[in-house]
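[scheduler] slot 2 assigned
[scheduler] job type: sequence-to-structure, two independent chains
[scheduler] chain ordering preserved from manifest
[runner] begin chain α
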Amino acid sequence: MEPLLTTEEVAGYLRVEVVTVRRLVTRGELTAYRIGGEFRFMEPDIENFVKSQRVSAEDSRTAVEKFTERVRSVLAFANQEAADFGHNYIGTEHLLLGLVREGEGVAAQALLRSGLDLKDVRQYTVEVIEAARTRSPGTSSGQLKTFMRGVFSSERESDPLGERALTGRVKRAIELALDEARRMGHHYVGTEHLLLGVLREGHGLAARVLIDKCGLQLDPVRELVLQILQEPATTPLPEIPEQAATLLKENEPGVECRRCGARCPEYFRYCFHCGSKLS
């Protein structure tokens, strides 16, 4: 009888949290066996799950044709981030680092208006990557390790999205980004669609950062994206009114808006100057 894998081993292979593996089992997306009070997994079931997460090359090409220049920059940055970490694949965590590094698209604006600091998002992502690296099991079945390497490195030469292979989760996020663009009636895939795709994918390291660490939820972010897209592209921020100086007393601590730099009282939830959510 072939050895069964533990939840921790499967989490390491899939590069997700142990709790995510348990959620997949609960939803019936991943087959598991109860032994005592623990889940155990067979290699073929893990292989089938990974294969089910992959997106066809045709879907990837369709998305690529619609990518804006900003998204192409994000992918280039993601490829570089993966190289800096010594990874031979591009995961959702690298995509998120690419979105943060690009820093000017609608996705970055949505993160800022959600009260986040892009530097903090990057730091959270790096911490999650390092934690996942530490959790990866050092010894287990060689056959599954060989299979997983094949999943993450296949089609590298023909992949149109970068030098490194995309994980199944990234391909799924891109597929969902394409769906978000269709829903909005857009004939392009922008950084905003990519951000929504990562959130909708929901299980990768990037989702853990955005949902668990940053407290974001899909529907509010989608509404914020639509709001940003409806704003005139060239609308300048209004000048800070002179009366604003009376909002804070001398040496009174306040909160600085990430978007416009105005200082607001600590109890303000939104910036009085530009309306952005304060962290």
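[runner] end chain α
[runner] begin chain β
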Amino acid sequence: MASTARAPAVAGMFYPHDPAALSAQVTSLLAAAPEPEPGPVRALIVPHAGYVYSGETAAAAYRCLEQVAPDIQRVVLLGPAHRVYLEGMAVPSVDAFTTPLGEIPLDRDAIERLAALPGVVEADAAHALEHSLEVQLPFLQSVLGTFSLVPVVVGECPPEAVARLIEALWDPPGSSINTVFVVTSDLSHFLPYEQARAVDAETSRRIRSCDPVLTPEDACGARAVNGLLVFAARRGLHVRELDVCNSGDTAGDRARVVGYGSYVIG
């Protein structure tokens, strides 16, 4: 059977379509990110707006991933459904995702394991136009080089379901760590600048405290983030804030802004 691949849906809109321009932009964003503190990197929370808006904040997290890049063989990537209504979580049927930087193979064995979980369905329509996952891929390609991908779109589902999915692919104690989890979410949407700063500061406090009570008004990826926080608290993991800002700080006006935050969990 011929292999199948998901083509990029937002290249040329959220990030450059030209491979050289895309590579140069990601390289520049990573180079400008702060030198990360040493420590374990088991999961990241990153924003998913266009690079001109949230690329600097995302790069702060992906710079941390450079520390463990030689060991990482698989990325489990979870992000919210923006384009279709989705009950539960969706995995794709294809064999690869592509970006202007090349093709990323999917871990079909892992995906089949997830598809057997309650609340997980196979639905390519949930992935076809979804930008929250796609905009992470050039960063991952630039930092990791070769890896396999497990993409999951998260719809309406309880935190425990997301935590159960993470548990299914978490490297067991005593084994080598070769899987990293990336959850994508922006923070508040379309508030005035100062109000957004206050709301996002409280959301960030809850994330740092592993308090899984975020709503979609706090963060569009609240359901995936809450699931990760449930799992992190259960495992005694530490959440560290890397950067919080909004579009009024980067490339937008301050009348109606979108918030962005990045965090590392280990």
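[runner] end chain β
[qc] chain β: The chain is about 35% helix and 25% strand.
[scheduler] slot 2 released
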